[in-house]
Amino acid sequence: MTQQQAVFNQGLISFLQASPTPAHAVENMVRQLQEAGFSPLHEGESWVLEPGQGYFLVRGGRSLLAFRLGQQPVVEAGVCMMGAHTDSPCLKVKPNPELVRQGYLQLGVEVYGGVLMHPWFDRDLSLAGQVYFRNEAGQLQQALVDLGEPVAVIPSLAIHLNREANKSSEVNAQLHLPPVLGAAESAVDGEVAEPALKRLLASWLKREGHQVAEVVDFDLCFYDTQPPALVGLEQSFISSARLDNLLSCYVGLQALLATDQGQAATSLLVCNDHEEVGSASAIGAEGPFLESVLRRLSGDEQQYQRMIARSLLVSCDNAHAVHPNYADKHDENHGPKMNAGPVIKLNANQRYATSSETAALFAGFCATAGVPVQRFVVRSDMGCGSTIGPIAATRLGVRVVDVGAPQWAMHSIRETAGTQDAWYLCQALQAFITGWTGQE
């Protein structure tokens, strides 16, 4: 690992640590964009855009779109698009969460996305997310909250009380997942406890300098407080929560920030929330966020269609690396390895949007960047996941290639990726941006 790669990975680790929720990830990306001179845009206002300048928009606080306008018109050069998602599977706090069981205070949770549940047990958990509150003047305000310190745990049941735990152990999300916050003094089991969570949030907000008269609502999730780390004998791996898919958000952002004002084609990054639950929302990939911006950039319908015909979207979402203990879960000719380069993802049933043309184009970007490339096809007797790629292809009619860095333990509370692969993917994306000529 070179010094440049080491600095890149430390930036990734810092981003992962500072982004326990999609809203925090967007806030951190906005900060980097502003430091690089990108200007904010608002969908409800008129836009006056200048070639070479960078701009960004935020929708719902959890989805972000940023672009640098090229020197050539978008209808001639097209748009170099990169897509990722800001959300990860997690445990979200219910609106009225307080539970009292056996004298302990717990919070009820919903399972968000395809969570691998067992790794959530016996972890030091904290809370983070968006909180809406009224100040002393009665005004509704919003703030990001990250308690930072461990405030809860989901204890495992001792094996002495479940001798079959290592053979089969079902997790009931309603009964077994509510985290324990502590003792509920003088409480009776089953009673609705005093809203301890809102008191906790109000106290935290006041310490941060906010005037809080009443906490009105929140969008909170639990997260593991163990920080990301480089692991392995030669620090070959990055171990962290939310690698799927904050790794792709970070990589796409760094590729965009590496562009310069003399770039011919327009380069764009979109990071949507709600991919893990289907993307069907106003801020998800199935919503109008990306399309509405592209239409404003192009002008009338004919110009829009010309632009789309000359554009390409690289949909970035991590891929399944072959697991040495479960190698039979992969097709023997399509098992991506760690630190062996970005993965082109293909599926005959269109769960990925890659075509032979777009696969060839991306392989060319990798060759230009001097990085290796791999291909993944799921076993023919297994189901295949999906990404924002097919959604964007269907909604926009744009060419798409689905790619990603290989990783282990996808959708676990802690995942593992190679220390080389995020860097490799970033180099390939930069080659895409600098080499795109708007070919049809």
From TrEMBL:
> Which keywords does UniProt give here?
Aminopeptidase, Hydrolase, Metal-binding, Metalloprotease, Protease, Zinc
Its cellular-component GO annotations read: cytoplasm
Q: Name one GO molecular function term.
A: metallopeptidase activity
**One of the GO biological process terms:** proteolysis
List the protein's name: M18 family aminopeptidase
Q: Which family does the entry's similarity section mention?
A: Belongs to the peptidase M18 family.
Its needed co-factors are: Zn(2+)
What does the record give as EC number?
A: 3.4.11.-
InterPro entries with a match to the protein in the record: Peptidase_M18 (IPR001948), Peptidase_M18_dom2 (IPR023358)
Note the Pfam families from the entry. Peptidase_M18 (PF02127)
Among Gene3D superfamilies, the record links this protein to: Aminopeptidase i, Domain 2, Zn peptidases
Q: Where are the transmembrane segments?
A: none
* PANTHER family membership: ASPARTYL AMINOPEPTIDASE
- What domain of life does the native source organism fall in? Bacteria
Zinc recorded as keyword = yes
Q: What class of enzyme is it?
A: hydrolase
Its source organism is: Marinospirillum alkaliphilum DSM 21637
